[in-house]
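Page 42, continued from yesterday. The earlier attempt failed because a stray header line got pasted into the input along with the sequence. Redoing it now with the clean sequence only.
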Amino acid sequence: QSSNSNTLTCHRKVEWFSRMPLLNSSLRALRSPCVTRLATRSFAVDTSTSSAFDRNLKMKQRDNAARAHNVWKDGEDVVDYNYFRKEMAYRLVDRLDDIKRQEGFPLALDIGAGSGYVHQAICTDDAFEGEGGIGGIRKLVQLDFSEELLNRDVDEEVEGAHRCDTYRLPADEEGKLPFPDGTFDLVLSSQAIHWVNDLPGLFKEVQRVLKPDGCFMFTMVGGATLPELRISMVLAEMEREGGVGAHVGPFVELSDVGSLLQSAGFSLPTIDVDTVRISYPNAFVLMEHLQRMGENNASLRRREFTGKDVFLATASIYDEMFKLQESEGGEEESDVEASVQVISAIGWSPHVSQQQPSQRGSADHRVGDIVTKTPGSAGA
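This time it went through. Structure tokens are written below.
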């Protein structure tokens, strides 16, 4: 993986990357001459959760993406629209190598598995300790509510599949997970749970199916995702129709993720954020890729119809405001860029072996007795 995590680049020997001329390894920060408030979701502890997404529509979108892939996969000059999911799955699995665990995580669950990129990433190498693939995973249960997407590549051979066995289970992530308490050593999710309405309920279910000292590790897109497309759509609709609709889903704020983990009963939460920037020839190509990924709009507040003149205006505004400044040779680029905020988090099911804070009042030293004042400092 590239040491510069702000660009979508990868040094792994995978064929899809060489076929994607749209990715640029040296992107500059975007120029945004206007600022608009992004639609985000907020969560409060012990409150009812309102729905933000049409889950039935999202299932159809993911099913359609799977069908389109199967129709065109054997054609000439085929574009693999799953480059982002592949890269994020590899980055997520790479984090398992940072966890020192003697037996690894023998049994794992992948929530929102899609067509199985997390499983492919696990099978790429042996575990540092013990048996199985990366992270010591010997069996992975893949769960997704889109059965067509889940079984899209079921007949294709996964390289290194002998390292990690797998089982595909179609089920809704928003409902009660169909597993007994304390089943899994590890629960993973890569770029899937941002379409879940009841995130507090899902996190509590994950905590329930984890064994003591089990690990929950996931990545999801955050609230600052696709600001360029949001701004362009807002300006285009205001100019053409005098109103604004919801075209990019309301995603979770970074500040809410830690609260969600703690309220669900996880200990030792760790959260970080990254921004991935991807270049495209123009805004229409970006919107096409979102549709073929199954990531098109599924907001309950979406407009029933958007005219083609709005999309033409959106593309013109996007191409003017968010094009790449210049290429490495100093010449101006015609490509545009899209920004994705990626939130990565990890939480642990409570266990007596984990670090615990000392009881209040148990300290036997004062801070003032430990801190040494330097000469010339205030109060010295």
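Notes: The radius of gyration is 23 Å.
Reminder to self: strip header lines before submitting.
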